[in-house]
C-alpha cells in the first residue's frame, strides 16, 4: 500500500521482536483488522517513521529496547528518541501502550507503588513491603532497609523488571552481612513464602 492511499485509510503500524512475533497468530489478527477496516503494516525501526506512515495506531512491544536505553545503550536510546519524536509530531495517533506507561512497568519499585496506591488491595492483592536501594554503600542501604521496616530474610531484585538478561536474578539476604550482596539499583522486598504460586492480573481501564 503506497503512502497516498494510506492517508485515506486506517493503518495499524506494529513492531515487536521476531521471538515475540512467532508466538502470535498474525494471519488471524490481520483478518480481524481487515474486517474492521484496518490494514496492518510492520514498522522498520531502522527507517524514518515519517516515510512509513501515516499510522492510525502504533502497536508495539518495545520493552527490550526501552530497557536497554534505560541501562545506557546509545543505539537503543536513539531508537526510542526517534519513536517518541514521531509520536509527539502526531498527537492524533493512538499508541498501545504509551511509552511512559511501559517505563513504569519496567521499574519494579514504581510499579509496586502503582499497585500499592490502587484499589487492588481492596480485593486482597498486596505488595510486600519494599524499598529502593540506589547507593553502593552497604551501610546506607542497611539503614534504608531498617527504616522501611523490612526484616530478614528479604529478597533483593534488580530495579529493571524486564528486558535484560539479569532482570530475573534475585538474591535472598539472610542477615546484615549479606546486604553487601545487594547490587544497586535494586529493590529490597520483604520475603513472603508463596509456594511458587504466581497470579497475573490484567487491567483494562478501570476493570481488572
TrEMBL record:
One GO molecular-function entry: magnesium ion binding
Domain Inositol-tetrakisphosphate 1-kinase N-terminal positions: 11-101
One of the GO biological process terms: inositol trisphosphate metabolic process
Domain Inositol 1,3,4-trisphosphate 5/6-kinase ATP-grasp: 124-207
Keyword Transmembrane attributed: no
Cofactor(s) this protein requires: Mg(2+)
GO cellular component, one term: cytoplasm
Keywords: ATP-binding, Kinase, Magnesium, Metal-binding, Nucleotide-binding, Transferase
Protein family: Belongs to the ITPK1 family.
Name this polypeptide is given: Uncharacterized protein
Species classification: Eukaryota, Metazoa, Ecdysozoa, Arthropoda, Hexapoda
Amino acid at each position: 500500500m503506497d503512502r497516498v492511499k494510506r492517508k485515506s485509510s486506517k493503518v495499524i503500524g506494529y513492531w515487536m521482536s521476531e521471538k515475540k512475533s512467532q508466538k502470535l497468530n498474525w494471519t488471524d489478527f490481520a483478518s480481524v483488522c481487515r474486517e474492521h477496516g484496518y490494514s496492518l503494516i510492520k514498522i522498520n525501526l531502522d527507517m524514518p517513521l515519517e516515510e512509513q506512515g501515516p499510522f492510525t495506531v502504533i502497536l508495539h512491544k518495545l520493552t527490550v529496547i526501552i530497557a536497554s536505553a534505560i541501562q545506557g545503550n546509545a543505539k537503543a536510546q536513539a531508537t526510542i528518541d526517534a519513536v517518541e519524536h514521531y509520536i509527539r509530531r502526531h498527537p492524533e495517533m493512538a499508541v498501545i501502550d504509551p511509552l511512559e506507561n511501559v517505563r513504569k512497568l519496567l521499574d519494579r519499585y514504581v510499579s509496586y507503588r502503582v499497585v500499592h496506591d490502587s484499589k487492588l488491595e481492596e480485593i486482597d492483592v498486596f505488595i510486600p513491603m519494599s524499598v529502593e536501594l540506589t547507593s553502593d554503600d552497604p551501610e546506607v542501604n542497611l539503614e534504608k532497609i531498617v527504616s522501611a521496616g523490612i526484616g530478614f530474610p528479604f529478597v533483593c531484585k534488580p530495579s529493571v523488571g524486564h528486558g535484560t538478561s539479569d532482570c530475573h536474578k534475585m538474591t535472598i539476604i539472610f542477615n546484615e552481612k549479606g546486604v553487601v550482596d545487594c547490587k544497586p539499583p535494586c529493590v529490597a522486598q520483604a520475603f513472603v513464602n508463596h509456594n511458587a504460586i504466581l497470579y497475573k492480573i490484567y487491567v483494562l481501564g478501570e476493570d481488572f
